[in-house]
Specification:
The chain is mostly helical. It has a single domain, classed as Catalytic domain of cyclic nucleotide phosphodiesterase 4b2b, CATH 1.10.1300. It contains 14 helices and no strands. α8 crosses α9. The radius of gyration is 19 Å and the shape is globular.
């Protein structure tokens, strides 16, 4: 008979529960799951301010925020923000359980930063052109400016401007945490949580490979990257993942390993289901990129994304 420790590392989640881990398309359900986890850490935490940020993020994505157009970036959509938000919740829970206890304020800073990190893709009503992807290189700065203007509206302390700015900076492309000048190591830790969740949260999405086709369109609009076409981006994603693994274990401090603590506590299984999902995606990617260019699309079947791409792009056969 296996001992309990061995069983907790080898046992699988039922397929429906595993799918539910990464099913963050419903804001009501996502908020409910997040609140439950956070309240397991701090039953009396006041999430009013974070909920205000959450509601305004939804308004920016559905086009009901006054003075702004709906966020239209196809890759950095609402689902992406909810994925990162939910991964941040699970990761901060794991960090807390590992013995690095987080205060209510630190928890709220992580949640708010995760919600805010991509809101810079939003365009004001008079910014008529483009999907917002043209702001890829400046979207974090734009999001920080949006945050600074709205802290008081959300009933969040003005003193949160600096930590939120630094935490959000940890999600920038080619970020280097050593250049950010954290005033104390606790804010660096919070930045590592959100920076890690931004990467592993999106790459664990079951439709990550399909969504890379949307990312190609964003890069094309932003004039970023050196990709010949969508297939070329897929081929180069393997190298990107190798660099990301070094970032996870380097400047992001190996924080992603703390997800094991969350899953051991929450579902009784000592495994990192996010990392496992990412590695399944990358293993499947290795099969896709071995195919001839007129065959690889047949391997990408989730969420009807390929059909959507064909409707909006002339670069896909």
């Amino acid at each position: 008979m296996q001992n309990a420790a061995m069983d907790s590392t080898t046992r699988d989640l039922p397929a429906a529960e595993l799918r539910d881990l990464f099913a963050n398309s419903d804001p009501v359900d996502t908020w409910s799951k997040a609140r439950q986890i956070v309240q397991s850490i701090s039953p009396d935490i006041d999430l009013t301010g974070v909920r205000n940020v959450f509601d305004d993020a939804l308004r920016l994505f559905d086009g009901t925020y006054p003075g702004y157009s709906r966020i239209q970036t196809p890759y950095h959509d609402l689902r992406h923000t909810l994925d990162v938000f939910m991964c941040s919740v699970r990761l901060l829970h794991g960090v807390h359980l590992s013995g690095n206890l987080l205060s209510d304020e630190e928890i709220s800073l992580v949640l708010a930063a995760a919600l805010l990190h991509d809101l810079g893709y939003a365009q004001k009503s008079d910014e008529a052109e483009g999907s917002g992807a043209q702001h890829t290189q400046t979207h974090v700065s734009r999001g920080i400016a949006f945050m600074a203007l709205n802290l008081s509206k959300w009933h969040l302390p003005a003193s949160w401007n600096t930590p939120l700015t630094l935490i959000m900076r940890c999600t920038e492309l080619n970020h280097n945490l050593s250049h950010l000048g954290f005033p104390d190591p606790r804010i660096r830790l919070l930045g590592q949580i959100v920076g890690s969740a931004d990467l592993i949260g999106q790459m664990a999405d079951r439709a990550y490979l399909e969504k890379l086709l949307f990312l190609y369109l964003e890069f094309e609009e932003a004039n970023l990257g050196n990709f010949q076409d969508m297939h070329d981006l897929l081929k180069k994603t393997r190298g990107f993942y190798e660099l990301i693994r070094k970032t996870f274990d380097g400047e992001l401090g190996g924080i992603y390993h703390r997800l094991n603590y969350h899953f051991k506590n929450w579902v009784g299984i000592d495994r990192n289901f996010y990392l496992e999902s990412v590695e399944r995606n990358i293993a499947y990617l290795d099969r896709v990129i071995m195919l001839h260019e007129d065959e690889w699309l047949s391997m990408l079947k989730r969420n009807g994304i390929v059909d959507s791409i064909r409707q909006i792009s002339s670069t896909v056969p």
